[in-house]
Amino acid sequence: MWRPKMVNNVGSTLAGSLLLGLALLATQAEAQRTPTISYITQEQIKDIGGTVEFDCSVQYAKEYNVLFLKTDSDPVFLSTGSTLVIKDSRFSLRYDPSSSTYKLQIKDIQETDAGTYTCQVVISTVHKVSAEVKLSVRRPPVISDNSTQSIVASEGSEVQMECFASGYPTPTITWRRENNAILPTDSATYVGNILRIKSVKKEDRGTYYCVADNGVSRGDRRNINIEVEFSPVITVPRPRLGQALQYDMDLECHIEAYPPPAIVWTKDDIQLANNQHYSISHFATADEYTDSTLRVITIEKRQYGDYVCKATNRFGEAEARVNLFETIIPVCPPACGQAYFAGAEDVAATSFALVGILLALLFTR
């Protein structure tokens, strides 16, 4: 009975050795496998103040360091293994051994958190296995300082207005005019970073709105003012005016020009000035508009005739005529309540003339 027992013990020992050998071979084979990253979270888009979590699952990496880094222009180490390196209470790290997954969480996301995050297994000084995930943070639009602020251009020249904005998602730039006036593109709005006017006209001057919007917050807006330089244009509201002797009369002209012009009044090619016979006043209603008034004081016979309103700037000149003629009946305004300074004979003659006109009108009826 002793010999068979020896055979059984030898057999058990050989079987145990074989199993142990196989286990060692399996362990060595696993140890020789190259670490891999089997999963990394896909790109994330979050709002400011939100929370994000990055998952990085690794295989065959028990003997290696697994790192999380923020890899932008200057890489920042966030964690090594299951230890958080960065001293920021918003960051936390968990390790799930059942899935060999490292979980990096960021709370109260800030704009500066946007960027690329890298999960990395360090195999040697020259060999690393990495996977990246991008975090984009929604940011409201902010119009850049290099956008156009104001333009002064000569009539007929090409004008280009530029508007750029930062933010995420990329903002859309829309152009409008003040009071929703039609743009030079013959539309109420125009979408694009650059608005061009090939041949600017004086009617194109005014305020333009560059509006940046990306659906985050209320967007941003910049007002861009365009001034167009052009030669004077004169309009006369009343080209012919009548007034009685010894009464005042106002002659008016409206000037449109930029830069503001020099304005003069002449009669018989003689420039008029403020004195006992004339009073000249200019009133600017806007940068481009000026109202000019010539008051002819206590009209005398020699003051009837044509008056010229003339405006000049470096782009040209313009003039318009106003004719002042004599009437018997004073015109109001500006003669309303005006004192009468004629002599007694003139008063009597004028009175008789007025009575005669009134009687003639009555009898013709």
Structural features, described:
- With 365 residues, the chain is mainly beta.
- The protein has 3 domains: 36-139, Immunoglobulin-like; 144-230, Immunoglobulin-like (Sandwich), CATH 2.60.40; 236-326, Sandwich (Immunoglobulin-like).
- It is built from 2 helices and 26 strands.
- The strands form 5 sheets. Strands 11, 14, 15, 17, 18, 20, 23 and 24 form an 8-stranded mixed beta sheet that branches.
- It is rod-shaped.
Secondary-structure blueprint:
Blueprint (H helix, E strand, L loop, with lengths): L1 H31 L3 E5 L3 E4 L4 E8 L5 E6 L5 E5 L2 E2 L6 E6 L4 E6 L8 E8 L5 E16 L6 E5 L4 E4 L2 E4 L3 E6 L12 E2 L2 E4 L8 E8 L6 E16 L4 E5 L4 E10 L3 E6 L2 E2 L6 E7 L4 E8 L8 E9 L2 E12 L16 H21 L1
Parallel strand pairs: 2-10, 11-18, 19-26
Antiparallel strand pairs: 1-3, 3-8, 4-5, 4-9, 5-6, 7-8, 9-10, 10-13, 12-16, 14-15, 14-17, 17-18, 18-20, 20-24, 21-22, 21-25, 23-24, 25-26
* Secondary-structure element pattern, one letter each: HEEEEEEEEEEEEEEEEEEEEEEEEEEH
Q: Measured on Cα atoms, how large is the radius of gyration?
A: 45 Å
- How does CATH name the architecture of the largest domain? Sandwich
Could you describe the largest sheet, including whether it forms a barrel? 8 strands, mixed
Strand fraction? over 45%
The CATH class label of the largest domain is Mainly Beta
Oligomer classification: single chain
Query: In angstroms, what separates the terminal alpha carbons?
Result: 167 Å
Instruction: Write down the overall geometry.
Output: rod-shaped
